[in-house]
Amino acid sequence: MSSPQVATGDRIVDPMITLAGCSTRQRIVVAGAKSMELMLELHRRGYLLAAAAGNCGRPTGQYDVALVDWRRRTLRSLEPTMGWLMNFLSPRAVLVVWVDAQKPAATESLRASVAKRGFVIVRGAVHECGCALLARRSQDYPVQKAA
């Protein structure tokens, strides 16, 4: 009897879902090289409102969650994708970006890229398959006025 093979993308689905706090009722857009495979895996797990970047429709702020698998790709190439993705996300959207393990300078570059798009980094996670960060739109964290 052979053991089932676990695809690399499958190993990051659970940590990404957990980090984002996804529910099966949320609309999720998945971006990255393996977006179709990740979308199908989400469908198998009951997240039927998930769409891959290639079939997510017109950008109207319709997605609650963006899961971005950016392993084995440069952070510089993430910039255009992030710019494109922002128009698909609702004002209360969360963003999870999964990358290969990074040097501190690269991690800061990723954080700066996400922040300049109007997101606040909530937390990060390190996993055997890389590292991820969770960010929320900054409107969810308004600056408190001084009394």
Describe the structure in your own words.
By secondary structure, the protein is α/β, with parallel strands linked by helices. Helices cover 30% and strands 29% of the residues. It contains four helices and six strands; from the N terminus they run αβαββαβαββ. The chain has helices at 8-20, 35-44, 78-85, 104-116; strands at 28-32, 50-52, 63-69, 89-99, 119-127, 130-137. Strand 1, helix 2 and strand 2 (50-52) form a beta-alpha-beta unit. The longest helix is centred in the first third of the chain and has 13 residues, at 8-20. The N and C termini lie far apart (69 Å).
Question: What is this structure, in a nutshell?
Answer:
The chain is an alpha/beta fold and 147 residues long. Helices cover 30% and strands 29% of the residues.
Features:
single chain; 147 residues; alpha/beta; six-stranded mixed sheet; 4 helices; 6 strands; 30% helix; 29% strand; disordered N terminus
Question: How is this fold's topology laid out?
Answer:
Layout: H1 8-20, E1 28-32, H2 35-44, E2 50-52, E3 63-69, H3 78-85, E4 89-99, H4 104-116, E5 119-127, E6 130-137
Parallel strand pairs: 1-2, 1-3, 3-4
Antiparallel strand pairs: 4-6, 5-6
> Which segments are poorly predicted (pLDDT under 50) over 5 or more consecutive residues?
1-8, 142-147
How much helix, percentage-wise, in residues?
25-40%
Distance between the termini: 69 Å
Strand content: 25-35%
Radius of gyration: 15 Å
Strand order of the largest sheet: 2-1-3-4-6-5
The tally of strands reads 6
Mean pLDDT: 85
Helical stretch tally: 4
Shape type:
globular
Secondary-structure element order, as H and E? HEHEEHEHEE
Report on the biggest sheet.
6 strands, mixed
